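Table 4 source record.
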Amino acid sequence: MKTVLDTTCLPRAERTSAWAETTALALVSTRFKFPDPENFGARISATTLGPAQLSTMSYAQLVSYRSARQIRDSDPDLYQIALITKGRQTIEQARNSATLERGAMVLYDSSRPFQASAVGEHACGSVLLQFPRRLMPLPEKVIASVCGTTLNVHGVGHVFRQTLTALATAEPDLGVHDRQRLGVTVIDLAAAVVARHTDQVAALGPQTRRTVLYREITSYISRHLHLADLTPKAVAAAHSISPRYLHRVFQDHETTVTTFIRQSRITRCRRDLLDPALHNTPVSAIGARWGYPRASDFTRAFRTVTGMTPTEYRHSSAALEDG
């Protein structure tokens, strides 16, 4: 991410005005009150993901208002979803209100007045996704019903929260096509979170539903790699779909369920084989940890992906470090 503002680089007297000016350009225009302006500090970093923007922010106590007049003067027509990463925060919009702790998510609309505050003695923080309202594949009246309310963080909400967190710490060398694809995906996930929250899943298009299902399934697989019986049939049953439809979902992403499971397991095994803290852990135990209870099965699968046995891989990596 690119740092947009870091108030530690500014004189104290300029920090609150710099925050107001920067957020008006990078987010939406609002009016602020600062309970302790002399000690105010904030930081914003941002990156673009195709049609979306992702920002990470930390800030001291403040209260922000977006009025009907400001909306008339300037409205970028954005939906914004905030994931709270630090502190305790509140928001009011569309006659709804929510108090948000770490891990909570909330949606709000730049075209509606709102009031938000960061409270408490310690710094607050959030990850903020914003994208054009026209890209949300749900009726406006559905969105209005959840503005200013805490969104469900279970199921697809959990996947969405994990995705935002991962994107906020992603490597900076993502290509243009990667960013475009990730932007579309994260908007699809945002739509799915709202659709599940409002029982409007049927309003999503078939491609969006398959994209979201793929993310849910891959998250499920990642959490269950230790199970030896994690087969395509078991994965399909866990998501109440047929194995045939499961394979179709993965074909959209140019892979298969079996390949995804194997590559995910081997990635975890390679990590553990290189971990100095696990140097004395038997190779077979590492394989068993990630779904290969039989040493021969682990060796065969590992060689298929890496071209060497787990023991050879561990020794060759150690030799490179010693060299």
